């Protein structure tokens, strides 16, 4: 059985779609998943990226593509009333449902994702978050300083491993980014020799050429 790390932030519709598709995409494979909450905005800040929702035409394309992927795979989805939004309360709640140093289970992560991507309501509405917390019955206080530090440390650890976006999945030491990488993950789990480290590493070998410069 292979271990899979699945980094996510409920702000990302692609992370939601990957979460929903994971069982079907990896059907027949032997694996166990550790669901790892991280703050997407911190990943963007570290690597100097803008999020899709921060670029108007990309935002429009993202929402259309997300709706198409959901339609194509018969996944129920409704855009939240507000997006982007502050996902920190939901990330901390997910992490608080696990023991210290642990990761939330699939049931918890499903509830958090569907809180955002099923209702069409504001994900940050205090009453809705309170109801979700009552439903999940976290083991720890999501607002505690220890929990906040744990989320920061988890995000920093992901960055140190090379995670730059969500969803990202890791099998052994290989990282797979995006909902469209699920087929790659499945092939890797099935032992496709294409994923042998010698070949995998060689594909990333070209030296970076001309660098884009900031225009004044």
Can you put this structure into words, describing what you see?
Helix content is 47%, strand content 10%. The protein is an alpha+beta fold and 216 residues long. Helix 1 (13-25) packs across helix 5 and helix 4 packs across helix 7 (145-161). The longest helix is centred in the first third of the chain and has 17 residues, at 56-72.
Instruction: Tell the overall outline.
Output: globular
Count of runs of 4 or more consecutive helical residues: 9
What is the SS-derived class? alpha+beta
Lateral strand order in the biggest sheet: 2-1-3-4
Quick one: biggest sheet?
A: 4 strands, mixed
Q: What share of residues is helical? A: 40-55%
Count of beta strands: 4
Regions with little confidence, pLDDT below 50 for 5+ residues: none
Cα distance spanning the termini:
53 Å
Query: Roughly how many Å is the radius of gyration?
Result: 18 Å
Strand content range: 5-15%
Order of helices and strands: EHEHHHHHHEEHH
Overall pLDDT confidence: 94
Short description:
This protein has nine helices and four strands; from the N terminus they run E-H-E-H-H-H-H-H-H-E-E-H-H.
Keywords:
9 helices; four-stranded mixed beta sheet; alpha+beta; globular; 216 residues
């Amino acid at each position: 059985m292979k271990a899979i790390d699945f980094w996510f932030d409920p702000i990302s519709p692609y992370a939601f779609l990957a979460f929903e598709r994971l069982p079907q995409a990896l059907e027949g494979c032997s694996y166990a998943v550790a669901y790892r909450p991280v703050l997407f905005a911190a990943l963007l800040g570290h690597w100097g990226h803008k999020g899709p929702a921060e670029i108007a035409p990309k935002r429009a394309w993202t929402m259309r593509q997300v709706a198409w992927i959901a339609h194509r795979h018969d996944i129920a989805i409704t855009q939240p009333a507000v997006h982007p939004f502050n996902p920190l309360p939901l990330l901390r709640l997910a992490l608080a449902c696990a023991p210290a140093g642990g990761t939330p289970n699939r049931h918890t992560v499903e509830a958090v994702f569907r809180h955002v991507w099923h209702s069409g309501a504001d994900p940050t509405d205090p009453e809705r978050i309170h109801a979700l917390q009552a439903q999940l019955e976290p083991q720890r206080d999501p607002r505690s300083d220890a929990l906040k530090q744990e989320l920061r440390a988890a995000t920093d650890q992901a960055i140190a491993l090379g995670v730059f976006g969500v969803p990202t999945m890791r099998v052994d030491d290989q990282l797979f980014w995006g909902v469209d990488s699920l087929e790659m993950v499945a092939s890797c789990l099935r032992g496709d020799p294409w994923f042998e480290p010698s070949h995998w590493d060689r594909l990333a070998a070209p030296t970076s050429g001309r660098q884009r410069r900031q225009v004044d």
